[in-house]
Write a structure and sequence with these properties.
By secondary structure, the chain is mainly β. 2% of the residues lie in helices and 67% in strands. It is globular, with a radius of gyration of 19 Å.
Length: 239
C-alpha cells in the first residue's frame, strides 16, 4: 500500500507542505478471554485545511477476541473541529466504525493488518450559517499495514524495552461533498515505541499525510509529529 500514492499521484495537484502535531491517549482493556473495550482521546493542530483550526476527538468501542491474533471491534466516535475564521466555530462529526485487526508474529518483528469501515456524519462548513445546521454523509474504508520490532529487548518479562515501528494506511471514501475523487488520504508513519512495562507504551512517530481536500481540489502534503500513549490493561483471572 506504500505505493498507492505513486499510482494516484499523476491525477492530482499537490500543495506545499503543512505541519501538524497529534497528541493521543489510547486505552485497550481486556475483560475476559473474548471481550474488552477500547477508547482514545485525540488533539490535533491544524485539523481542517486550509483554515486555522484545531481538532479534538474521542472514540469508544467494544473488542471481541476471536483468538489472541484476531479481534473484531466497533463503536462510536465524536470529532470536533474549531475554526476561528467563521461564524460557526465548532464543526462536529458523528462517526460509527467497525474494524478487524489481525496480528501475525514473526521471528524478528510483528506484522499487523487492520481494516476499518466508517460511517461519517459531518456538519457542513458555511460562512453564514442558517438556523439549522446541515450534515453531509460519507462512507470511508481504511486499510493499514504495520510492522514493529525490538531495538532493545527487555531484561525481565515486564522490563523496559525499545522498539521501532513503521506503518502505511490508505483510505477511500464515497458520499457527499467529496468532489469526484474516491481517494481520501494516505498516511506513512515511522518512529520508535518506548515501553517501560507491558502495560504502557509511548510512541514517537513522524507521519507524512497525503490528503485530498475537496475545498482546495488538490492533495495536501502534511507533515505530522504523533505522540501517543498506549495503556494496556488485562483483568482476566490468572489460571
Amino acid at each position: 500500500m506504500i505505493f498507492g500514492m505513486s499510482i494516484l499521484k499523476p491525477n492530482f495537484t499537490f500543495s506545499q507542505g503543512d505541519t501538524q502535531l497529534w497528541l493521543t491517549y489510547n486505552n485497550q482493556t481486556r475483560l475476559s478471554d473474548k471481550w474488552g473495550y477500547t477508547f482514545d482521546l485525540n488533539y490535533r493542530t491544524r485539523g481542517f485545511f486550509p483554515f486555522n483550526s484545531t481538532l479534538t476527538a474521542a472514540r469508544v468501542g467494544a473488542n471481541y477476541f476471536v483468538n489472541n491474533r484476531l479481534r473484531i471491534s466497533g463503536g462510536y466516535a465524536w470529532f470536533g473541529t474549531y475554526i476561528s475564521d467563521f461564524d460557526i466555530n465548532w464543526l462536529p462529526e458523528h462517526r460509527l466504525w467497525q474494524q478487524i485487526q489481525w496480528t501475525i508474529p514473526k521471528s524478528k518483528f510483528q506484522l499487523v493488518h487492520r481494516f476499518r469501515l466508517e460511517q461519517r456524519f459531518r456538519q457542513e462548513l458555511v460562512r453564514y450559517p442558517a438556523t439549522d445546521p446541515t450534515y453531509a454523509y460519507t462512507t470511508r474504508a481504511r486499510y493499514m499495514i504495520q510492522l514493529q520490532g525490538l531495538l532493545l529487548p527487555p531484561k525481565t518479562p515486564d522490563g523496559f524495552q525499545l522498539s521501532w515501528q513503521a506503518a502505511n494506511e490508505i483510505m477511500f471514501h464515497s458520499g457527499d461533498i467529496i468532489s469526484s475523487q474516491m481517494f481520501n488520504q494516505n498516511r506513512t508513519l515511522a518512529g520508535v515505541v518506548i515501553s517501560p512495562s507491558r502495560k504502557f507504551d509511548f510512541a514517537v512517530l513522524y507521519q507524512l499525510i497525503m490528503q485530498y481536500q475537496p475545498v482546495l481540489d488538490k492533495v495536501e502534503d502534511i507533515h505530522s509529529i504523533r505522540l501517543t500513549a498506549f495503556h494496556n490493561l488485562d483483568y482476566r483471572k490468572k489460571r
